[in-house]
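Example 3.2
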Amino acid sequence: MRLLLSLLAVLVIAALAMGGSVYWNVLRQTESLFDYQLRQMALSLRDQGEIAPEDARALTDGQLDYVIQIWREDGHEVYATQLQTEPPARAVLGFADIPAGGIVWRTFGVETRDRVIQVAQPQNVRHARAAQAALRSVVPLLAVAPALALVIGWLVSRSLAPLQRLAVEVRSRDSGSLQALPEEDLPDEVLPLVQSLNALLARLGAALAAQRHFVGDAAHELRSPLTALKLQVQVMRRAPDEGTRDEAARALTAGVDRATRLVEQLLALARSEAGPPRDATATPLAELVRQAMADVAPFADARGTTLELDVADGAEGVSVPGDGDVAVLARNLIDNAVRYSPPGGRVSVWVGTDATHATAPVLQVDDDGPGIPQADREMVFDRFVRRDNAADQTGSGLGLAIVRQVALRQGAEVALSDSPAGGLRVRVAWPAREKRADAS
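Structure, written as tokens:
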């Protein structure tokens, strides 16, 4: 409707402008034509000796708009058309506008050897006839304008019909319908918009499918620990003695810990998949890694695992974007390394920079566990994937999935390789960051 109204407004403005231009031009041309007639009439009488009586009667016809006046050299009026309105009483050579008898006359005077001839016409008559001629020229344009408006309305309606059909289809869909919108018979100006909407619908469909898959996996993974907790509660309630009850309570506590860790990792994975990375200030990577090691230290002590941190020269001030996401990434890497290393093992953490970019942060974690075969290294980034040869089967299979999601959000790369200690090496490399000059 807005497009149609805009086009009709342009049509009206153009019609008015063209009508005004045509009216003004025809008015001027008609005035010029009337002046030409005055001049030709005066010149045609220039060689007349006397006006015959029959010619005089013809010139006094009331239907004529012209007044003819002839004077001799001595000023005696030889002839003047008889009108009710008084004509000009004096002659002016050439064209002139002379007021007389309460009106303005347009006159043309010419001088011969023995007389002066003047032809006059009332200005109001000239203007009225010029206006009539101009209006007759404008009327066809005004008559065509409504027809053009109808044609424009029909063309706009026909051109926008595919958009109307598209709008009806979108309105008829429910919230779960994410099929692509039809792209046939769309105007070229609208097709890129529909293609962008289809791409957005495809991304939404993929995100919703991943969410449904995640919820299904989470429900499946939570069912087992919750069932185990329920059984352990029943065992504790049926325990015949205090020792059996204490053993059941310890098993129940361990089950609660496992369920708590699983829920925490599920929440961390959900946050890492929630959307684009948030804007955050840069934080030193070494500081975040130390905090992550402090969080994992009690679990490592319980398994007798030694944690080692090596910060390369000049890497203390190397920062990464954000803090919470990177802390989750580092904690999961170190926790995985401790969990899948044998009791009494060693986990080495290195913080440095890329060899080719001094401002590209790198986090590297080595363990002395069983490692991961080359063929399985891509698969372990999927959710709820556990290694059958793991030293500890209490993991949830979410650690590396969380690491991959956080890295993708920050534009970092995760690589798995063999560790010199015999286990697995996980290397996370962030893109190089621009150096900022320190304030003096």
